[in-house]
Design goal:
2 domains, alpha/beta, Rossmann fold, Helicase, Ruva Protein, domain 3
Length: 266
C-alpha cells in the first residue's frame, strides 16, 4: 500500500503536483484505506469501477484482491502514470466519468457494458453527488458504492425529514438504496489536506430495485429550488395533490415515501 512518501516520490519522478482544479487529495492513511477496503470486501473476479485513481494507491489494493478494475481518470498526467505502472492489469478510461450531470461518459459506459459491478473509490468531491445519483437512478447493474466523499454529502445521503441536510440526493438515495456511514476521516488522512472533513460511505441498492415515478426527479428538484416555500407555491396551485395531503407543507418535511405518493398522482 502506498504511503505518503511513495505518493510524493511517484509525483516527483514526473515533476507533478496535486491539481486543485481536479480535486486531487490523495488518501494516504493506511488505517483509513484498510477501512475502505474492508467495507468493500472485494471478491476475486468482481468488476470494480474506480473513479479518480490518482497514483494508484487504492487501485493496487483492488487488483491485489483479484478485482477486475475499470479505472476512470480525468487528469491526463495521472492517467499516463497509471497506464505506465498498471496498464496491463486494468481497463483505463481517460476522461471525465460523466458526460453531463445525468449521463455516464460513453467510453466508460462501453467498458461497463451491462456487466454487474460496484464502485469503490476515493471520489473527487465535485464528482460525488452527480455520479452517485446517476449510478443509482440509471444503472441497475451497479451493485453498490463504497467511497470516500465529503462529510457534507454523506450528511445529505443520510438526512432525515425536518433537517437542513435533506434534499434531492437524499430522496433518490434512500428510495433506491440503504446508506451507511462507515467512518469519518480527518483532513490529515489526505495529501494535500482538504479544508473539509470526509466520510466513508457504503450504499447498497435495494432488492428488488424500486422503479421511481418518471416525474419524481422533476417534482423534487422544482420543490427544493424553493425549499422554504410551501408545496402549493413551488409546485403550483393547480398541482393535483392527493386526498389528505397538506399542500401547505414545505419540501424538507416530507419523507422519501411521501415523495412517491406526491409524484405518483395522475
Amino acid at each position: 500500500m502506498q504511503d505518503l512518501a511513495t505518493i510524493k516520490a511517484l509525483l516527483d519522478s514526473r515533476d507533478l503536483r496535486p491539481k486543485h482544479r481536479f480535486g486531487q487529495n490523495f488518501l494516504h492513511d493506511a488505517k483509513a484505506m484498510r477501512t475502505l477496503l474492508d467495507a468493500a470486501a472485494v471478491q476475486p473476479g468482481e468488476v470494480i469501477l474506480e473513479v479518480g485513481p490518482g497514483t494508484g494507491t487504492l487501485t493496487e489494493c483492488l487488483l491485489d484482491a483479484g478485482a477486475s478494475v475499470i479505472a476512470c481518470e480525468l487528469d491526463r498526467d495521472m492517467a499516463a502514470l497509471i497506464r505506465d505502472r498498471l496498464g496491463a492489469r486494468l481497463t483505463l478510461i481517460e476522461g471525465d466519468c460523466l458526460q453531463d450531470k445525468h449521463t455516464i461518459h460513453p467510453a466508460l459506459l462501453q467498458a461497463i457494458a451491462g456487466r454487474p459491478f460496484r464502485m469503490v473509490a476515493n471520489l473527487p468531491y465535485a464528482a460525488a453527488t452527480p455520479l452517485i445519483a446517476t449510478l443509482l437512478e440509471s444503472h441497475p447493474t451497479c451493485g453498490g458504492i463504497i467511497a470516500t466523499i465529503q462529510r457534507e454529502v454523506a450528511d445529505r445521503l443520510n438526512a432525515k425529514p425536518d433537517t437542513s441536510e435533506i434534499g434531492p440526493l437524499t430522496i433518490t438515495a434512500q428510495l433506491l438504496a440503504t446508506v451507511e456511514r462507515v467512518a469519518t476521516l480527518k483532513p490529515g488522512c489526505f495529501w494535500p489536506a482538504p479544508d473539509v472533513t470526509s466520510a466513508i460511505i457504503r450504499i447498497t441498492p435495494r432488492t428488488p430495485r424500486p422503479t421511481l415515478p418518471a416525474r419524481l426527479r422533476t417534482i423534487v428538484d422544482q420543490a427544493f429550488q424553493q425549499r422554504r416555500k410551501q408545496l402549493r407555491n413551488s409546485l403550483g396551485a393547480d398541482y393535483p395533490f392527493p386526498a389528505g395531503f397538506d399542500p401547505m407543507r414545505r419540501p424538507e418535511t416530507l419523507s422519501p415515501a411521501e415523495w412517491i405518493t406526491l409524484s405518483g398522482v395522475a
